[in-house]
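Course assignment 3, question 2. Fill in each field.
Student: A.L.
Task: Predict the tertiary structure for the chain below.
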Amino acid sequence: MKYEWMEEFCCSLRGAEKDFKEEWNATRYMIRGKMFAMQGGDKEGRPIITLKLEPSMGEMLRQQYKDIIPGYYMNKEHWNSVYLEGEVPDDVLRDMIDRSHQLIFTSLPKKAQKEINEV
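Answer field:
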């Protein structure tokens, strides 16, 4: 895989939890049960990671990179999938993961955010 750092990076983010959803054949990265990233494959088995972004940011990135598409099997407005064998630069993917994590983190109740920040 091209982005060898990806799993370690996802797991290093505040409050991140990892699990494997067998029926989807996908690894999910979550905060308190809310998913910020999902790594799996498309219908041809090509590896992808799906991330949540502000709609305008997702649209801009999809226009800029052919390997970023509307979220595979997800809400196409808020979720974006990145082909992991594609040409998206590491720093762009790292920023996408970070933004997705931040969106989910800030959607948590303030009490949960505080508990995570205190760990």
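Instructor remarks: The beta strands are 16-21, 26-31, 34-41, 47-52, 68-70, 79-83. The chain has a mean pLDDT of 95.
Grade: pending
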